[in-house]
Amino acid sequence: MYSLIPFVRGRSLGRVHRDFDDLFSRFFGELDLPKLREEKEFVPAVDFKETDEGYELSAEVPGLKPEEIEVSLHGDVLVLKGEKRDEREEDKDGYHLVERSYGKFYRSFRLPEHIDRDKLEARHAEGVLKVSLPKSGEVEPKEIEIKKG
């Protein structure tokens, strides 16, 4: 399925900074340099599968309510976006380890041509968003006559 192209906006820059900090720490030890605020990004993991009836996209969105997620179709691009908010209060900050990710996310996928765009359906249950993409009839190639002049 060559037409499915995932895209994550602005994901790698923070990772590059962390990798450079780690590299310098290995060679020179811990330096007393101001570190960039390390933010854990929230990017939903996605599965995309084909069935006889169509396609199904499943995205892990734990902790998000359906009203905090937007699913839209722009031409042949399916867009998932939303925000997972950190609900901790700053005055009770006593954490020693934070592994959960928070923040805005934006995922987009170019869809195959033979999707019935009028029958797309999205459901949310138990932290998983499922988008059903039923197939329409196969798209027949159209030959175009070349005119002279």
Q: How would you describe what is shown here?
A:
It is built from 1 helix and 8 strands, in the order E-H-E-E-E-E-E-E-E. It has 149 residues and is mainly beta. The protein has a domain of 80 residues: Immunoglobulin-like, CATH 2.60.40. It has a 4-stranded antiparallel sheet with strand order 1-6-5-4, with no helix packed on it. A 4-stranded antiparallel sheet has the order 2-3-8-7, with no helix packed on it. It starts with 6 loop residues before the first strand and ends in a 15-residue tail after the last strand. About 6% of the residues have low confidence.
Essential attributes:
1 helix; four-stranded antiparallel β-sheet; extended; 149 residues; mainly beta; Immunoglobulin-like; 8 strands
By DSSP, the count of extended strands is 8
Determine the CATH topology of the domain at 41-86 and 101-134: Immunoglobulin-like
Q: Would you tell me the overall average pLDDT?
A: 77
Major beta-sheet overview: 4 strands, antiparallel
For the largest beta sheet, what order do the strands appear in spatially? 1-6-5-4
- Please give the alpha-carbon distance between the first and last residues: 39 Å
Shape: extended
Quote the beta fraction.
25-35%
Q: Helical amount among residues, as a percent range?
A: 10-25%
CATH architecture call of the domain at 41-86 and 101-134: Sandwich
Structural class: mainly beta
What is the CA-based Rg, rounded? 21 Å
Q: Specify the CATH class of the domain at 41-86 and 101-134.
A: Mainly Beta
